[in-house]
Amino acid sequence: MARTVAYVHQAMLQHRVWLLRDPFTRIKLIDTVQRNSFLLIQDDTIHNLYGGNKARKLDALIPDLLSRDVTDVVTCGGLQSAHTSAVSAALNEASVLYGRHVRVHLLVRGERPAFPTGHHLMALMHAETVTYVNRSRYANRQAMLTEEAQLLSKRYFNSKVAVIEEGAQGPLAMLGFIRLVHWLASSSKGLPDPLHTAYHIVVDSGTGTSAVGLALGVRLMGLPWHIVGVMLAGNEEYYASQSCRLSSLFDLELSSGAFVQDVGLEESAGGNISTDSSVGLPLTWVNRERTRKFGNLLPGDVEACKEIARKHGVLVDPIWTLSAWEVSEMLSAEISEGPEMSPGGIEAGFKAKKAIVMLHTGGAALALQGLGQRFPDAF
């Protein structure tokens, strides 16, 4: 198993250019009210503007766009989409760092608000153009994006236009999570005893790309871990379909040799990379503790977020990250032998053979601004 982890790094990760200089992230032990505990991967802290799963999705994707001399990028999302704000900000930042300007064009579902806030305000600050789209046109996202890309090709002389799907769904986006899984399994600052602990990593899910990417990383490296995706934007049928579609797309890229460098290792030495989408991923889809129509608040949601911030110094939002927090608390209560800490810290004192981990997907600060505009009485 350890050889497979090393081989994945050599064959898939170390020769690639990444957006994030280092896959490092902080890990914190959270003690729950029920006197249980889980580990929190604080991915919300890895970047000031677009931390969390957006940064992981763009980690391999943006350097790939720059290497292909793309001049324009078109993508889409809702009014408070963390995806649109992250793509705009990250490409703007990368353009400055690499001295090449890439124009970002956003197709946003809904009408322009009188006072832009949160993720939408940041998107407006960094994007070249923002077009507001009605729901009927937005319903056929693929046709909408293709049409916009064709218009941009005609509008800008000598342009090269790339399309990023809503939520950055796709094989390149999932590479960032494979890089994260490798770091968690191999770094001295990652998860303790990774080869002998059955970690259950909880992640809130919109398109499901983050959960599937993590599960692919776990399967590639043969780790005894399991991913728990909290369904927020669809039913179990939708997420099962997404699992099959995304893993199949990744397997096609993998089998074509697109992601693998020949590092001269024999299969017996761990040189065998395969995911085989016909084999089930180490991934389970679950509902959030209190189900609701996506985007809605329930009584007590905002107060729960405030209490978490006060007690743990962690910022979560009611729509996304609170759902993963609540599921992590619930699952940690079901484990008879929970994480234990010694004075030596995580590396020295973690003793559990099965443990719950929450991956913080970020975006809470800007998401709360948008929610405050929609639900002022809740704040």
From TrEMBL:
One of its GO terms (molecular function) is D-cysteine desulfhydrase activity. The active site is at S81. The keyword Zinc does not apply. Its cofactor is pyridoxal 5'-phosphate. InterPro entries: ACCD_DCysDesulf, TrpB-like_PALP_sf. Coiled coil: none annotated. Keywords: Pyridoxal phosphate. The modification N6-(pyridoxal phosphate)lysine is found at K54. Belongs to the ACC deaminase/D-cysteine desulfhydrase family. This is Tryptophan synthase beta chain-like PALP domain-containing protein.
